[in-house]
Structure formats: structure tokens, C-alpha cells
Amino acid sequence: MRRTGHVPAEALWAHAARAGRQDLGSDWLHVSSPPVYAYQMSIRKRLLEECPELVLISDPQTLPAQQELLRLMLDWLCRRYPARFAVDWEAGVAETLTEGYRHTFRLAGPI
């Protein structure tokens, strides 16, 4: 069983299924074709650099929920698109390997 931080990914998926959420095994998160994805990510990156206070608002009280969602999303992306996404939980990094937009993200805190 692959672990994602403190809670195994499989346990998170099972909990989500029991809680009546949609089938998380389907394409519940749309990832565009590589050229479109690269373009979209370049826009997001520019917005975060130029006006982070307008595009990223975070309430510290929601941090555990943010971390749980991040674990679920990264696990799903790596399973669904193994050639385009990777995560190394021990090193604390996630990567997008999509042609046109390759980037390594440092995962802060316990994910």
C-alpha cells in the first residue's frame, strides 16, 4: 500500500466513497491536453507571481482539509496520468512532467 503522508491514499479513497461522494476513480478532475495545460499553467503562475493576494486566499483553520484534498488530488493525478505527474512523499515534492510545463513543487508541512 502506497502511503501519502500520514494517511494511506487508499484509506482516503475508501472514506470518500463511503461518504457518498462521486466516484473518485472517474475523470472528476479535468486535465487539459499538454499544450492547453501548459498555457493554462503559465497564466496561473503569472497571476500567483503578480497578485497572489487576489488569487490565493487561505484560512489557517482549513489547513487540514487543504492537505487532505491535496493528497487526494496528487494521488489521483499520478494514478490517472503517470507520464504527466509524479510525487515523492518522502522528499516532499510533486512534479508536473507535462511537455511545455515541467515544474517541481515543494510540499510544505505534513501532507
How can the largest sheet be summarized? 3 strands, antiparallel
- Strand percent estimate: 15-25%
Q: What order do the helices and strands follow?
A: EEHHHHEEE
Shape: globular
Gyration radius (Cα, Å) is 15 Å
**Structural class by secondary-structure content:** alpha+beta
Report the strand count.
Answer: 5
Helical content, roughly?
A: 40-55%
Low-confidence stretches: 1-5
- Give average pLDDT, whole number: 81
State the helix count: 4
Which strands sit side by side, in order, in the main sheet? 3-4-5
Cα separation of the termini: 17 Å
What can be said about this structure in brief?
The protein has 111 residues and is α+β, with helices and mostly antiparallel strands.
Describe the protein.
The chain has helices at 9-18, 34-50, 52-55, 63-80, and strands spanning 3-4, 7-8, 85-88, 93-98, 101-106. It is α+β, with helices and mostly antiparallel strands. The protein has a domain at 3-21 and 60-106. A three-stranded antiparallel sheet has the order 3-4-5. Strands 1-2 form a two-stranded antiparallel sheet. Strand 3 and strand 4 (93-98) form a beta hairpin. The longest helix is centred in the middle third of the chain and has 18 residues, at 63-80. It is globular, with a radius of gyration of 15 Å. Residues 1-5 have low confidence and may be disordered.
